[in-house]
Amino acid sequence: LLTLPAAVYMLQEQEALAAPMERTFIAIKPDGVQRGVMSEIITRFERKGFKLVGIKIMIPSKDFAGKHYHDLKERPFYKGLCNFLSSGPVIAMVWEGEGVIRYGRKLIGATDPQKSEPGTIRGDLAVSVGRNIIHGSDGPETAKDEIALWFKPEELVTYTSNAEKWIYE
Ligand code: ADP
């Protein structure tokens, strides 16, 4: 027979296991693909302990790029940015893990690579703001919208990695 606290604890454990983990949208932009740093970027997310649940390569149309960057419509660099995003292959990804949205942004570094800390992806691998090689969702709402824009639900894979019990308490 279980004591009440033990039963509650087990229930919480089950809920924690059943609760969907946080997901974020990460894209390697055309400059990152052309410069041959995609494996390095994937490696950084992978080694941290985050889990890849969706990935594809595509050349987004200008219209699609415009949808992705709709928040920046009023900015002077918007058109150039959309043209650039659709200028070549992009690696679109969904990464999963505890705190992946916020920590993914930390791995990426500041928008302007000149201001990104060394050790971050943009700090180590990029120089100018219009060629900063990677995109990452900036919050839970954006992550949800961007994942829905770039991926169909069936393109995302739910699985347990053997490493999880060594990554999470
Ligand atoms: P982030 O990608 O870090 O979330 P923003 O959402 O503010 O940054 O901007 C989207 C993208 O627009 C940036 O990654 C960058 O490539 C481009 N960008 C931002 N500011 C400028 C700028 N002043 N000039 C040119 N491009 C810019």
TrEMBL record:
It comes from the Eukaryota. It catalyses: a 2'-deoxyribonucleoside 5'-diphosphate + ATP = a 2'-deoxyribonucleoside 5'-triphosphate + ADP; a ribonucleoside 5'-diphosphate + ATP = a ribonucleoside 5'-triphosphate + ADP. It is an enzyme of class 2 (transferase). This is Nucleoside diphosphate kinase. It comes from Lithospermum erythrorhizon (Purple gromwell). Homohexamer. Residues 21-158 form the Nucleoside diphosphate kinase-like domain. GO terms for molecular function: ATP binding; metal ion binding; nucleoside diphosphate kinase activity. It is found in: Plastid, Chloroplast thylakoid lumen.
